[in-house]
Predict the structure.
Amino acid sequence: MAALLVCKEVGILKISPNKVDYMGVDLIPSFGCRSCITNSEEIFEDLFSIPIYRQIIHKKKRVQAVMLNYSDFSKAYGYLEANYILLITQQRLSRLGQIHRIKFKFFHGRGGILGRGSYPASMALLSLPAPLTEHLQILEVGEAVPSKYSNLYLAMDNFENIIYSSLMKKMNSKLHKKTEEFDVSAMDALAFLADHSTQSYQQLVQRQDFIQFFIECSPVDMIDFFLERNPYATIDPLKEGRKIQDVNTTSWVFSWNLMRINLSTYFGVGTALKQYVELHGIQPLQRLYREWDFFKSLIDNLQMVMLKTDIRITSKFAVSASHSHKAILRELVKEFELTQSMVLKIVENNELLENTAIRRTVLQRRKYLDPLCLHLIQLLYKWRKTNRPKEHENHLLLKDLEESINAISTGLRNTG
């Protein structure tokens, strides 16, 4: 309502007595914390009960857009929990929309299940539950833009894939309907995995020794310098006792991406899968992978990100810091190996993304990315050793750092 007041003051919203005459923009709420998204139904119930807000929704053809904040939730809760929270939120809001005769349009930012890394966005779209693909919006930024829209043919090919997969999804949802029993068991399994994975993940990221590892071993100071021209924007608050939840999400994602170990994606997943298998066996998860497109997309995305991981390069970042933090690094490696082992059992393969074009593409890229990452480590060491010079002090060094970051990010395609 505060946003509406601002719109009214600047003339974007025009109101005559008891009537909305014009609304020039869309209001797209984004839920950034667990309590907000858990109570999203109640929040929208309250909004829809306000006459002026409901009139605005009617002006917008009864469509309410909602931003799905994958990156923030992944940072806070880990990969599986973030996807589970946002999935059930979409389902609940879709049901709420049916009650109020309002259509929810879900706004997917890149970095979530649509087009994550180089996993095809069309396949990810096909994996979404049917009601959630009727009205959606996709945001693609960063390295996704030149890779998909740098020329007319690439752009048209991307649009055709999205439109085709949208139509296929609509037809398939009417032709192939799984039993209610399968749907309930699938969601129960995902809820179990999400809950146990986030427990392991949060136990790690809330520990003080892990925070110290992040400060000393990751390139977060370099990322913050290029984002805010302040290499201590994240480091100082963490040293003062702030938690990982307060870290800028972009800094967090880029730091682990450059270290070649996407912590938020895999950590805790292996532990959760192992706990589930010990209770129920591996067969239920193998069935979910074969028969539930959403779960298959989660696992295949995980495979893709893990295939881009290189523990040797991560170790080089750790060694270049003032302390090796070997215990933390061993913990990260152990969970990575466990996650990889459990995933391969679920997909019933010997290698990640075995016999796929994505595997061949990633391995080909790594021939060029691995030397670039090693070069970046040397540049980072030099930058720190010279007391993190500003642009006017060492323009060439900073240019080399920035171009290396851009090249690695473009090659990995995990950030957006």
